[in-house]
Amino acid sequence: MEGLVTAMAQSEKLRNFWSGKRVLLTGHTGFKGSWTAAWLMRMGAEVHGFALAPETTPSLHGILELDYASEMIADLRDREDVRAMVQTVQPELVLHMAAQPLVRRGYREPVETMATNIMGTAHLLDALRDCDTVKGILVVTSDKAYDNDSYDQAKGEVIFREGDPLGGRDPYSASKGCQEIVARSFEQSYFRARGIPLVTARAGNVVGGGDWSEDRLMTDIIRAASEGKPVELRNPNTTRPWQHVIEPVAGYLMYLQAAVEGRTSVSALNFGPKDLTLLLTSLTWF
Description:
This protein is α/β, with parallel strands linked by helices and 286 residues long.
């Protein structure tokens, strides 16, 4: 796996595609967003960021001090700010990563979570449908977008496929299932006729440097150890398919490129330790 990711990172094909592209990256102040922005800039992309201010101190966004072409600290729930950013940037490619990403916060703040993840996505896609420069859009959702009642509990494991029913019992998961439906609606209603690919990516359980967020298992363990406190495992019997942050970010960049170049017509992909290897193989890069 590491060899594939390293080879992909050095691929001239990937660099040649992203170099010089005008990219709108939402959620650029977050953990995965900061990694994505750094990678895009290393490849020569012109990156424009839209997100809330970082929630933690320190933050990877603050540490990296990246040189964005432009940066708007604003809220997806503000439709006018979203539209103003799109009109100003006139992006060619869009990576939508901004979200309320936490399950337990979703329980505490269900309306705010749904407003950000569902209506925030609708605000962005509505602004983009009037943008003449856009060539491709990727919306990052979550592996929690699936309906948990759709799997065979007798098997003792959950392996969701992209065609499984969407749903969500808790507010966060429900918002992610709805985000998928909103994205597909806009794709079929507006972007497909213009030949603009709009695809969704579903990932979770990402680890890596620069993550100080709440409710992150690895981060919580390190934080507890540094403070001399016992570690609280909220769901000790749960299996977590860990992947390093480089892996889904690599997949996102490859996936959107393949969609724009017409090398895939798949509208949604799961990103996890095993499926990512299959993805890298199926796109036949090397």
